[in-house]
Amino acid sequence: MKTPSVLLLAGTLLVAGSAAVLVRALLQPAPAPVVQVKDVAPPPPKPPQQAILVARHDLQPGAFLDMGAMQWQAVESSSSSASLLFFVKGQDDAREVMGATLRQPIKAGEAISRRDVVKPGEPGFIAAVIRPGYRAISVPTSAVASNSGLISTGDRVDVILSLERDQGEASGPGQVPFLASQTLLQDIRVLALNNVAMSELQLSGEQAEPSDSRRYSRYDTVTLEVLPREAEQLAVAKEVGTLQLVVRGRREAPLQGQSDPSQQRLAVTTLPQATQVYQSRQPSSSIRLFRGEAVEERLQ
Description:
By secondary structure, the chain is an alpha+beta fold. The strands form 4 sheets. Strands 5, 6, 7, 8, 9 and 10 form a 6-stranded antiparallel beta sheet that branches. A two-stranded antiparallel sheet has the order 1-2. It has a two-stranded antiparallel sheet with strand order 3-4. The radius of gyration is 47 Å and the shape is rod-shaped. The N and C termini lie far apart (190 Å). The protein has helices at residues 3-27, 82-85, 125-129, 200-203, 228-240, 271-274; strands at residues 49-55, 70-76, 101-102, 117-118, 135-140, 156-163, 180-193, 221-226, 241-247, 268-270, 286-291, 294-299. Among the domains are: 49-118, Type Iii Antifreeze Protein Isoform Hplc 12, CATH 3.90.1210.10; 133-167 and 177-197 and 218-250 and 262-274. The chain contains 6 helices and 12 strands. Residues 205-216 have low confidence and may be disordered.
């Protein structure tokens, strides 16, 4: 075979082989894409949560705390010292705050801080529960004057001034001692007995039991909530005689308005108005009538 024919045949075979390889490559499916697996970082853990006491509604200083005024609410715990600042559920009992009051206003939803809470018996409790415009004054008392310890904080009382007997003794024989009493103030709230102050919410629970020894303790002083003018009146009255406390019933309607002691002049009860025992002891004068030998004596 001639050389040109051989070269032509070899070229033809080469072209045919190349075409076959190209057709085969075009007919084959495309290879699946390579999926690269990347390491996905896990989501960050949720911050720990804990429930703390918050105000259920707006609270004002002097308002007593109960479960109607506060509630537990879950918040993020960003500090390990939260239990030192707030009341934490599981660590604190809500009953510990029952009957306490606040030093400053707290809006609804705000956390109740420990420093804002004043518990009964702690310094500042009396100043926190006094109503605006009123004052607290302590007056001396005794077991008899305070109804043998049956008065509790939160009770409403009337204050009666009784003249001391040694100051009201009669100046002469046969004369009635000048003893008198007068109701000075009415519907006054008792804030504390001695140095023990309790809220009205605690009274319904703790002091309801007869076995509570604090109900029968001896009271030397009673702290009352009065107006400034009434405080001046009590300051003078306690130097004159004995101040008696008369308990008012809880079902009795409170007196409306702020009564001015200068305009409230109640009647004074003197000894002859209280009893007639001295009237029977008063000497009576007599007149003797002489009719001849007969003598007649008549009492005036």
